[in-house]
């Protein structure tokens, strides 16, 4: 294993606590997360991370809210880039609703 050094950084206590709780759920320590982050910075030559914890409780709550609202039901299909899109012929008002609520 390569030698390591100690890195000292200042963070807001509330952010540190929230991040620690999320990372604990992922089974990763703050030290490991920082190490992963720095490896990715070097690998991608920039800030590349988009890691998120899937929150089933939030997903379920949002689904219930949608089911009990007047949100139009639409079918999303991936376009050639993998982005989800709405078929404008089937749902002509969907774009306006998505933009304007």
How would you describe this protein?
It contains 4 helices and 2 strands; from the N terminus they run αααββα. It has 101 residues and is mostly helical. It folds into 2 domains: 13-44, no CATH class; 56-100, no CATH class. Strands 1-2 form a two-stranded antiparallel ribbon. Strand 1 (76-78) and strand 2 (84-86) form a beta hairpin.
Helix content: 40-55%
Our estimate of the beta-strand percent is 5-15%
Mean pLDDT level: 76
The end-to-end span amounts to 54 Å
- Low-confidence segments: none
- Compute the CA-based radius of gyration: 20 Å
Structural class: mainly alpha
Number of strands: 2
Inertia-based shape: elongated
